[in-house]
Design brief:
Rossmann fold, 9 helices, Methylase, eight-stranded mixed beta sheet, alpha/beta
Amino acid sequence: MTARTRPIGSATRGTTNPNRLRRMDRWIAAAHAGMLRRAADPVAVDLGYGAAPWTAVELLGRLRTVRPDAEVVGVEIDPERVAAAKPYERAGLSFAHGGFEVPLPAGRRPLLIRAANVLRQYDEGEVAAVWARLCGRLAPGGLLVEGTCDEIGRRHVWVALGPEGPRTITFAARLGSLGAPSDLAERLPKALIHRNVPGEPVHAFLRDFDRAWAAFAPYGALSARQRWIRAVASLQADWPLVDGPVRWRQGEVTLRWDALAPGASGGSVPDPR
């Protein structure tokens, strides 16, 4: 390749496992079902799918529960990974060599770009430019979902962005393995991973969440799910949550991005101690 056509970005470690991104996929299919149903061209991009194509295969299956004619293009910057994925191609599923330029055939723009565990290796100062580039590739009304999870998908935090920029942030966990909500701090996306310090809104949110989790510990005798639901519900007075019990039951909570954005005032009162 010439410098002019070289994909934009750097190769990831390629770590991947079946069902690693199931929480993110299910949230997309549920929370953004209307977007999928309305789209004229329901094509999604699994950006940086890694050394094996499992996440692209699974994304297609989950999107098709909402939109049976959805398509997925797995995009990888490592040509050897693309070659290894080619045997898995079928109607609606293909793989392409590329990076943040998000290569699609002329005239097509993705309704959805999912970039999971892609930006961890970048500097925080590079995130805004990558977000802007990816959002610039979206179809009108499209969505970028960018975030990080652990190796088997038990803990996950992601940001949802539209062409105008970041909209929401979601925290999701397998509740049976969760010690405290702040355990999710290690999976904050790159834009926030270094911001979990006193004075930053994400730190205040996780502090309040841990306190609520502790306050509702007696509900743990019923189930971790019941404890989570009640802890999340108690946050509504101080934080701008945008979902409800249906999603909370899945071990999720979503709030407006502007409440946790670096330098934002946050949604909670300061800690008096």
